[in-house]
Amino acid sequence: xxxxxxxxxxxxxxxxxxxxxxxxxxxxxxxxxxxxxxxxxxxxxxxxxxxxxxxxxxxxxxxxxxxxxxxxxxxxxxxxxxxxxxxxxxxxxxxxxxxxxxxxxxxxxxxxxxxxxxxxxxxxxxxxxxxxxxxxxxxxxxxxxxxxxxxxxxxxxxxxxxxxxxxxxxxxxxxxxxxxxxxxxxxxxxxxxxxxxxxxxxxxxxxxxxxxxxxxxxxxxxxxxxxxxxxxxxxxxxxxxxxxxxxxxxxxxxxxxxxxxxxxxxxxxxxxxxxxxxxxxxxxxxxxxxxxxxxxxxxxxxxxxxxxxxxxxxxxxxxxxxxxxxxxxxxxxxxxxxxxxxxxxxxxxxxxxxxxxxxxxxxxxxxxxxxxxxxxxxxxxxxxxxxxxxxxxxxxxxxxxxxxxxxxxxxxxxxxxxxxxxxxxxxxxxxxxxxxxxxxxxxxxxxxxxxxxxxxxx
Length: 458
Description:
The protein has a 6-stranded antiparallel β-sheet. It has about 450 residues and is α+β, with helices and mostly antiparallel strands. It has 2 domains: about 5-210, 2-Layer Sandwich (PmbA/TldD fold); about 215-235 and about 345-455, no CATH class. It is globular, with a radius of gyration of 24 Å. Helix content is about 20%, strand content about 40%.
C-alpha cells in the first residue's frame, strides 16, 4: 500500500470537484479466541479503508458524492475520485450543506506510517488464562485489539491525523452441577491490555459460578435491581445515540418537549449525575475532530475537521445538550455539538457492587444485557434480555441464581427512578462492544426494574 498521506495527496491533486475531502483509515488488529478451555484461533491482520467525498456547488445548493474503497492498488485512485465526483454531480443538493472548514497547519505526524498491533499485545494476561484452562470449569472467550490510524485531508487545507487503540477481552465460564450448568460472564475494555486484571476477572467469574450452584425460578414483575456498570452502559449508549437535536426540535424523538421545543434544561434525575463525552478523558481518549463519511442528524460530512469537544449531556441530573451538526444548529439557533465516542456517568457515591448488595434486603443483581432493541422511539422504550447470570439477593447476600428475563425499560425513565449510583469505573458494554468500548459507569440501583416476561435464554 502506498503511504496514506500520499494517497490523500494524489486524490486531491487530481480532483476536479469544487471541494474534496479524503479520509483514510489503516486498521491493524490482533485477536485470540478460546473454547472449552483451549485456544482455537489467533492471528493478526491489517487493512485499509478510504473514502473520497466530492462537493459540487449548484445554483440550488451543494451536492455531495461519497465513494468508499478498500483497494490497496494505487492504480484505482483515479477511478474512485471520478466516481465520487460523478455521484456528486448526479445528486440533489444536501440539506446539511455548510461551508467546509479550512486549515493551514499540517499534523506533525502527518507523514508517519500507520501504527500497528501484534499478537504479543496479549502476553500480559495469557499466562494467567492458560493456568485457568487446567481447572474444571469450561472457559470460552475472545480478546481483540485494534489500532486505527486515520488521516483526513481536504482541498481547503485540512491535514489531520489520529491514532485510536481499542481493545476488549471477555470470558464466559460454565460449571457443571448435578442438575444444571451454571453460566457466567465477565469482560473488560482496554487500550493496551497492560491494565487487564486477569486474576481479578477469573476470581469474579468463579464467584458468579459459585452463586449459580443453587437455582430458583422467579416470575416476571418489577424487582429492586442492581445493574452493574456493563449493563447500565449499554442502556445509556443507546440513549446517547438517540439524542438528535433535529428530532427533538421537530417532535420526533423522546427528547421533544410536549408543546414544542426540546427537553434541554429539564431535570431527568434527582441524583447529581453527570453524563459526559470528552475526547481528553485519560484512558478513554478519542479523535478530537470529526471524520465522517456519511451524514445523519447526529453528524455531517460538511463538519469534517470540526473539533470534537467535551459534551455534558447531563449536568447534575439536568439534560444539558443534544447533538447538532452545524447546519442543524444554524437552523435551530443552537450550538454545534458532536456526538461522543466515549461515555462517562459519574456523580454517585463511593459504593461498589458489593456494597450495594450488602445494603439490599431483597432484590436482583444482573450481570449484563443482551439483544437490546427499540420498541417505541417516542419514549425510547427498549427491550432486551438478561444473560449469563441473574442473582437473587436476600438480606444482603447473594443466595441463588434465577432464570433470565426479558426487560422493557426506557433509559430516560430509568434515570428518573435510579435511587442509588455507586463508584464510576471503566467497563465493557456487552451488547455494543463491537461499536463502542470507551465507557466508564457506576453500578446503579433501580427500585422497580421491569422484568416483563421470563426468558428461556441461558
